């Protein structure tokens, strides 16, 4: 990737050098250049520069994860347009260098603490996803986080529940995953890190389905413990037929993607404030389990793409600050560790906090955040 940047940089320097050389020959050396020589040299220089630029872009395109598809598409369309193509290439170069420095710093940091195994917790880590996703092997819901944890000594498993179902159904699937892990590893318990609805499902499994015997800690990330008030209000306004039609299409799609019995409507209903209030009554914290929670928030609607930008605008006037799906007031549960903050203007969305888009955010290293979270569990004896 860095070599690709260096190719682009070499092309830029070459262009400036050629222009400066010709300017000197014509303006100062008073040298008259024949047209065939000028054309021949121009063709040679162009071919040479195209090789350099193509080499650089191929390297960056195949290696960089932070140069977005939008930038590549614009470059493919406007590569021939002077000034615009230079601006786009400059943007690619800046992003590439930034990404290289980030990855280099991360690699050096992990190498320096390799022997410490800072994430080698007493009990394995169980990552539990939120609604409308699955634990796919080809696309990890948790982005680059699992790899970072494993590199630092963690043992990772996944909840493997369906993408959406009623809380009792999802909780039963998580229970089965916990028992399977206990049997396979011989561990006495697990540490659960759950995102979004996964936190509610996990609480139900712990308190109602008897998994408190096998869970050492539960850390919830952006979980709507007190529900989503806006979800109930929206469902009241949207015609039942429209919701049912969307649900049917969703269930057909995710049945093909691996769900056995996806239940779109039940999953949504169980996220409303009324349903969560009822769940909080029947699923109290268990005394032998550490409960802790973390939240994040977007700072503006431009901090994330669709549908989180739309969600931010809907929730803001109704429930205040939010991450695009969950109001920050609904996130605390147990020992509240606070809101994850960033020095940039973007904030951290519902997807950013689990590295869903694999996007580096100024002032927030998502992988290091989870390494720190798990290393604290290790220091606490979990």
Automatic annotation (TrEMBL):
Keywords: Hydrolase, Membrane, Transmembrane, Transmembrane helix. InterPro entries: AB_hydrolase_fold, DUF676_lipase-like. Pfam families: DUF676. Residues 171-235 form the DUF676 domain. GO terms for molecular function: hydrolase activity. The keyword Translocase does not apply. This is Alpha/beta hydrolase.
